[in-house]
């Protein structure tokens, strides 16, 4: 019985609680990474991931481990993305496991994403092993945190492992716990193949690489496989496991985890959540289909120079190859020219893509303010989703407007409850629940318009709680709201790229704030610049920049040539990132300022 020695597990944790560090130690102990290859956070492949300390693309590693009982086990560590934006991917990765290590930072305790991840793991019936991390730190308080886990999650923590992923202390015990507590998988090797696709990505040499977990049946190199949702068939050209280097295997049976390549050209050939089966003897019981991940946050992406349009398009296409959740389509703006409308899962996803475009593809970008998708009901009864405020029909054609709402859970020490409630109320939130998790920690549940969060909710939440709050959210539904389209005008021209949809009660304050920010961030020109905010034809705010007379170097006293030169160079660099809007040049900073206006 081959499955007896297989253990499939994930590590779940709130961000920064030590998931990647623990994974590194496990790789070292099992000998998967030699001293020479060792570097921090081996599993976070991309440079960007390492810098941000999050894992975007999950990777599974197969690790041989000889336990204290003398037997050798096949451990499959499945690395899951750790952020709410990627929750569908987290859920598929967990579906490939029988157990999960729940890492909780013993200096911090249970946080919002700890809980969200645990609930997902419980949904998949996983055996959960609590691991208290960072016990090398004097500020760790393992007893309280263990009690917190018991009270909040209901997990027995009497024998909870206490480790330091950093120093490696007690990490060996974690491996023993996996062997003893995580159930071995089961399944009939002779049944028709039923394998779950829990991750896939595009590799320029190998085409699409599919990570799968077999429930039943056997897969061999050379097999003709069928992808359940599309019915398309492919020949398996490469079959193997990451150790973490890719190693070829001839076959895999029930409970095993591996990768395959089959000359697939696009991610849509192997969607996450779909079933792989054999063409000649397909399973009658595929997984219940896959969920298409829909973008929730949108923004315009424009090249700074028109000549950069094609390179930008190529860069976007390349990114999309590897990110099924990232969408884009061409868009034209009167103000910004030819560009793209891009859709993302959430704000973090958006930031990551913008950064990768600038870094990996050297793209010079202007990104417009992010917006959510709105549901518009026209007077003739037609319902449509609009992802760009400037595409909104004329006011008289709109019967009603609805906006997406999220359900948000915020964990916070009780001292900050008042501040959090105040913030949520300001953001048009509707309180759902508030309960004490422990004598000092409170969980607050709100329903909030997603649009309010897209602006600056996280920054505000962090600042009003001095960084002590953690949160988790999911989009729940569309709700009718009193929303209006707010236009920004510069010297009488409507700047389409700056149009936003806002709640009517917010419109005046928002319009004033944006107009002021724009006025301040648009460098003064040789002519007068008037900034206005308007709802339809009604002007609700107005700001003015008087014409400029002085030379930019005029404030340099005396003959400091190098300083003058620096100033001029700075001005030149600034120009590169400017766009002509109507008759006025607007720097990228003005967009960002407009964004943070509230
Ligand atoms: P992740 O976001 O859960 O993957 O967390 P990381 O593994 O990136 O760890 C977050 C930070 O905590 C990093 O700076 C780690 O070096 C640090 N860290 C992780 N484990 C320990 C530990 O056991 N002790 C100490 N002192 N620091 C740790
Ligand atoms: Mg990490």
UniProtKB/TrEMBL annotation:
GO terms for molecular function: GTP binding; GTPase activity; ribosome binding; translation elongation factor activity. One of its GO terms (biological process) is positive regulation of translation. It is an enzyme of class 3 (hydrolase). It is found in: Cell membrane. Residues 4-186 form the Tr-type G domain. It is a peripheral membrane protein. Belongs to the GTP-binding elongation factor family. LepA subfamily. Required for accurate and efficient protein synthesis under certain stress conditions. May act as a fidelity factor of the translation reaction, by catalyzing a one-codon backward translocation of tRNAs on improperly translocated ribosomes. Back-translocation proceeds from a post-translocation (POST) complex to a pre-translocation (PRE) complex, thus giving elongation factor G a second chance to translocate the tRNAs correctly. Binds to ribosomes in a GTP-dependent manner. This is Elongation factor 4. It comes from Desulfobaculum bizertense DSM 18034. The gene is lepA.
